[in-house]
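Regression test case RT-17, inverse folding.

Input:
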């Protein structure tokens, strides 16, 4: 890959501003935790694994900038930063998982030296980054068996290197299959209202020279009916313990269409995306975003003034519509409620 989604620079966090893609490649140099939180909230960086990495780096950055030798004061201040990061995006569980790992450093009673705490927080943030890269590559290796030479793959939103520390989850599977020598075609849902498919996934595939076609979200059913799709492959932002999966809005519709047309629907996600505290998708919090994302396009109004909008960022696909989940530890099949637990224990 010729780009980096996020980098730790020691005194700053460098983030590729995804709001500007594909037209402009611009990097944000975030020098404090609030600027990292803003980048997450305003979707300069997005994708569940990527925002987890960004939050961890933002917490480490706050720790490095904090001037106090008192461990109790230090921990109180960093706890506030952790809380600030939690307020950015409510649906993606990887965010809370990464913050939880950083919090664990603060709660270790043996760590009472501020300089040591700072070092440990930085090491943990970098470990989260490196682990995500490795996890994504493993997901790709496990999932590539589902893509055959000559297939036509439909994907939704962006679950690529831009949504992770690098390589990608659903797009990581596509990358791994392509690297193995399989030749196929990818159909990319545009993914309204922010066009992550048309702007980001298509851009990544063009960079990798993987053949792709952008379609509007409403075209997917027709392509399936015409026999132009062999499988659907998506990422995830949170998976309940029964396998219900939250992903970008429009995913649920694709799963219903795939089921009707007898096409396999696969979810590619790290195990950190599974939230065992939630029994089903009914309990997954769904972020609702600003009306302007629907009423405006590139700053220009496309709807009548005063119109009401509804803009949930995610929907939940029932586990009954999912053929299998692709994780870093292998393929998980039904019954998900038993097999997710079993995989996590191994």
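Golden output:
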């Amino acid at each position: 890959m010729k780009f980096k989604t996020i980098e730790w620079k020691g005194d700053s966090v460098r983030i590729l501003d995804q709001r500007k893609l594909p037209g402009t490649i611009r990097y944000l140099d975030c020098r404090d935790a609030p600027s990292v939180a803003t980048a997450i909230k305003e979707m300069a960086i997005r994708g569940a694994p990527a925002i987890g990495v960004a939050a961890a780096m933002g917490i480490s950055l706050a720790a490095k900038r904090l001037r106090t030798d008192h461990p109790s004061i230090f921990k109180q201040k960093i706890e506030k930063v952790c809380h600030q990061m939690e307020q950015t995006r409510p649906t993606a569980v990887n965010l809370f998982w990464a913050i939880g790992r950083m919090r664990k450093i603060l709660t270790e009673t043996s760590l009472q030296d501020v300089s040591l705490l700072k070092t440990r927080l930085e090491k943990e943030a970098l470990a989260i980054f490196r682990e995500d890269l490795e996890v994504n590559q493993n997901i790709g290796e496990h999932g590539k068996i589902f893509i055959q030479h000559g297939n036509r793959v439909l994907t939704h939103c962006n679950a690529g290197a831009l949504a992770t520390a690098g390589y990608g989850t659903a797009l990581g599977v596509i990358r791994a299959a392509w690297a193995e020598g399989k030749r196929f075609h990818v159909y990319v849902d545009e993914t309204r209202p922010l066009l992550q498919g048309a702007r980001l996934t298509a851009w990544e595939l063009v960079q990798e020279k993987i053949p792709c076609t952008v379609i509007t979200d409403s075209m997917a059913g027709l392509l399936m009916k015409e026999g132009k799709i062999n499988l659907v492959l998506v990422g995830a932002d949170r998976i309940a313990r029964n396998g219900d999966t939250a992903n970008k809005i429009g995913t649920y519709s694709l799963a219903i269409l795939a089921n009707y047309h007898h096409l396999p629907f696969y979810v590619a996600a790290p195990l950190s995306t599974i939230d065992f505290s939630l029994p089903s998708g009914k309990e997954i919090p769904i972020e609702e975003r600003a009306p302007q994302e629907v009423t405006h396009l590139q700053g220009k109004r496309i709807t009548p003034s005063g119109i009401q909008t509804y803009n949930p960022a995610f929907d939940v696909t029932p586990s009954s519509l999912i053929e299998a989940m692709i994780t870093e530890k292998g393929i998980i099949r039904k019954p998900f409620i038993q097999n997710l637990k079993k995989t996590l224990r191994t």
